[in-house]
Specification:
- It holds the Pfam family UDPG_MGDP_dh_C.
- Keywords: NAD, Oxidoreductase.
- One of its GO terms (molecular function) is NAD binding.
- The chain is α/β, with parallel strands linked by helices.
- Helix content is 41%, strand content 13%.
- It folds into two domains: 5-202, NAD(P)-binding Rossmann-like Domain (Rossmann fold, 3-Layer(aba) Sandwich); 243-411, Rossmann fold.
- The protein contains 16 helices and 13 strands.
- Helix 4 links the parallel strand 4 (78-81) and strand 5 (118-121).
- Helix 1 (15-24) crosses helix 3 (54-63), helix 4 (100-109) packs parallel to helix 5 (129-140) and helix 9 (209-240) packs across helix 11.
- The radius of gyration is 23 Å and the shape is globular.
- The termini are far apart.
């Protein structure tokens, strides 16, 4: 099966790299984005997110005419939906998944669908979301047949293929990682596999849509449980006056033990979110998964208590928070425990707050409006008496640690 034109709906941290990689294979790609500024930026050959080497690829495929960004959906042979799946706001259950972005994407592409088209849901979704996508498309286009109705003979092919990449290594892992592809029918799976085979060197493994959805949720829930164990250990070790970093290093010398690294919490739009989708689907059964989420969600509050206790030792405390992103060397603040910690300190402390985040140019409004200053690393070290390491950015790892000798340091990442 040959694909000459592909549409990617959503040009964020997953959609834009995916669009750029496909375009680099000589396939025409139309990227659809609701943000006019992002559209203009991409069409200039620039990028609006931080991801190593992405700027080079985007510049190349835009220059050759293989990638363009637009506000409006255009006809294509395949549509890849890469929009957010956050929690519902104002809902009684704060951790219930919000599929409104996927529904909006379905309604946007429905008018231009043609017989033989492929629609792939890449957004990480609760089990059953791909079937809901098919239903939304069917409601908009009753003139077309869908795989839930007629199986392999449907006019439109629908599948789920969740992204499984690590921020900072997205371009590499989009190509090298195995992909789990779940079609609503076997014909849908085969057509989706044909598309991914144009740029994926890893194995494309076929299953059904529900299993593919659950596979991504399972991967991130497994990591969340492991991190919760490490975070709980870190709290226990604080109480028992044990160096948790040394302890984990020693325990991991066992050939069958691999404890992950503790931190100030868990962030990003994957590990901090996906386990709740399983809990929402089966609240009575997902006991360990839910408890791991509660442990990791509690860790930022524990860090805040440590910082407040340290600040109380000074008449005029100045707290410097190193890092706001949810992981090292990126600009992504989504579900970031570091950001949550600084926001909480704004509310609960009279101290002057400084933030050091080398990957952004301005603070989010939640901090800027409360008087937090965005400063350089050297300015923070000069002015602060309490240093809080929240993210292990390369700039912090490479810093001269002797400059911190006379500071109170709370290191949640174990780099000092």
């Amino acid at each position: 099966m040959e694909f000459k034109r592909v549409s990617v709906i959503g040009l964020g941290y997953i959609g834009l790299p995916t669009a750029a990689v496909i375009a680099s294979r000589g396939i025409e790609v139309v990227g659809v984005e609701i943000n006019q500024k992002a559209v203009d930026t991409i069409n200039r050959g620039d990028i609006h997110i931080v991801e190593p080497d992405l700027d080079i690829v985007v510049q190349s495929v835009v220059a050759t005419g293989k990638l363009k960004a637009t506000l409006e959906v255009e006809p294509a042979e395949a549509f890849m939906i890469a929009v957010p799946t956050p929690f519902k706001k104002g809902n009684a259950d704060q951790n219930s998944p919000d599929l409104s972005y996927i529904e909006s994407a379905a309604k946007a592409i429905a008018p231009v669908l043609e017989k033989g088209n492929l629609v792939i849901l890449e957004s990480t979704s609760p089990v059953g979301a791909t079937e809901k996508l098919a239903q939304w498309l069917k409601e908009e286009r009753p003139d077309l047949s869908f795989p839930q109705d007629v199986g392999s003979q449907a006019d439109i092919n629908i599948a789920h293929c969740p992204e499984r990449v690590l921020p900072g290594y997205v371009l590499q892992e989009l190509v090298s990682n195995d992909r789990v592809i779940g079609g609503i029918s076997s014909a849908c799976s085969e057509k989706a596999k044909a598309l991914y085979s144009t740029f994926v060197r890893g194995e494309c493994i076929i299953t059904n849509a529900r299993t593919a959805e659950m596979a991504k949720l399972t991967e991130n829930s497994f990591r969340d449980v492991n991190i919760a164990f490490a975070n709980e250990l870190s709290v226990i070790c604080d109480k028992l006056q044990i160096n948790v970093w040394e302890l984990i290093k020693l325990a991991n010398r066992h050939p069958r033990v691999n404890i992950l690294t503790p931190g100030p919490g868990v962030g990003g739009h994957c590990i901090a979110v996906d386990p709740w989708f399983i809990v929402d689907s089966c609240p009575e059964e997902a006991k360990i998964i839910k408890q791991a989420r509660l442990v990791n969600d509690a860790k930022p509050h524990y860090v805040v208590d440590q910082v407040l206790s340290a600040a109380d030792e000074f008449k005029k405390p100045v707290i410097a928070c190193l890092g706001l992103a949810f992981k090292a060397d990126i600009d992504d603040l989504r579900e970031s425990p570091a950001l949550q910690i600084v926001e909480t300190l704004c509310t609960n402390s009279e101290a002057s707050l400084l933030a050091v985040e080398p990957n952004i140019h301005e603070l989010p409004s939640s901090l800027a409006e409360k008087g937090v200053e965005l400063v350089s690393f050297s300015q923070a070290i000069e002015r602060a008496n309490v240093i809080v390491v929240l993210v292990d950015h390369k700039e912090f790892r490479a810093a001269d640690k002797t400059t911190l000798a006379r500071k109170v340091v709370i290191d949640t990442r174990g780099i000092m």
